[in-house]
From TrEMBL:
EC annotation from Swiss-Prot or TrEMBL: 2.7.1.39
Subcellular location: Cytoplasm
Main location: cytoplasm
Protein name, entry field: Homoserine kinase
Organism: Reichenbachiella faecimaris
């Protein structure tokens, strides 16, 4: 067993249009790094957070909150030090809190000799999500820990399925620099939906899952319709309708809100279209003077890993 580890923890996109709180996928090579080492005093200590000003209090930071959940389940009093290097600012909708939650539990599991399975790690990482959004959702931490696309079939009991990743599927993400807190983005949603609306939504979830299995890009695109969450949350995102319409015009298969926003993501078949959409998204926000960062990748088949 080793005493120190360095890991990469990918950014993720949850909901994927129609799958609020159940669908998610990992990005490829975009995310954060974390170094974790054992210490002898039984404490969890965040030595440094590089990149952004985030809480180092172990009772608040998602990495240590999730790590504590794992230690409690293991009955371990081992202490650990953390250095976290973040590349995406919090409140982006790209699963940045989940990257830390999942990264923390993955690193500890490795350093303790892997007492837990990746699925068990999802449950601990969810405690980190609960700390920031008041709800222990798994749609970011599951793809982070398991890689690729995941579906939370059930929360109680927790049942997570991994779905296939079509080879030519690319994702483009734009992150306009306005903060949308997940707690607020959850609060504004309606608590009830009409049956006719629910019928449309679950038809699309089924269609999207089938599209992934069949590598049917058109089916993936036409299933990325969210009639429940997007109509409410899009008002929090500047230029949302404009960017989405233009992405579809440029050939995107589908376009929706990444997690709870404000990032917007689009799926494309092939790199060329994805790149065109990336440039378009950047221009749109530049034109109105809103600072925005754009990203493009394949779907990250591998989740959190040792580097
Ligand atoms: N499924 C969660 C939500 C993800 O949309 O609120 C938060 O990133």
């Amino acid at each position: 067993m080793f005493d120190k580890i360095k890991i990469f923890s990918p950014a993720t996109v949850a909901n994927v249009g129609c799958g609020y709180d159940v669908l998610g996928f990992a990005l490829d090579g975009i995310g954060e790094e974390m170094e974790v080492s054992k210490r002898n005093d039984g404490k969890l200590v965040i030595d440094e957070i590089i990149g952004f000003d985030l809480p180092k209090d172990p009772l608040v930071n998602t990495a240590t909150v999730a790590a504590q959940a794992l230690l409690d389940a293991a009955g371990s009093k081992q202490g650990f030090s953390f250095t976290i290097k973040k590349t995406i600012n919090p409140g982006s909708g790209m699963g940045t809190s989940a990257s830390s939650s999942a990264g923390g539990v993955f690193a500890l599991n490795e350093l303790l000799g892997r007492p837990f399975t990746p699925s068990q790690l999802v449950e601990f990482a969810m405690e980190g999500e609960k700390a920031v959004s008041k709800k222990a959702h798994a749609d970011n931490v599951a793809p982070n820990l398991l890689g690729g696309f995941t579906l939370v079939r059930s929360y109680d009991p927790l049942d997570i399925l991994t779905l296939p990743v079509p080879e030519e599927l690319y994702v483009t993400v734009v992150h306009p620099q306005v903060e949308v807190k997940t707690t607020d983005a959850k609060k504004i949603l309606k608590k009830q939906v009409d049956l006719s609306v629910a019928v449309q939504q679950w038809g699309n979830v089924g269609g999207l899952v089938s599209g992934l299995y069949e590598s049917d890009y058109d089916l993936i695109g036409r299933s990325m319709v969210d009639v429940i969450v997007e109509p409410i949350r899009k008002i929090l995102i500047p230029l949302y309708d404009d960017v989405k319409a233009k992405a579809l015009e440029e050939g995107a298969l589908g376009c929706s809100i990444a997690g709870s926003g404000p990032s917007i993501f689009a799926f494309s078949k092939g790199e060329e279209t994805a790149l065109k959409i990336k440039n378009m998204m950047q221009v749109k926000y530049d034109e109105v003077g809103i600072l925005a960062y754009t990203y493009m990748s394949k779907i990250g088949k591998e989740g959190v890993r040792i580097i």
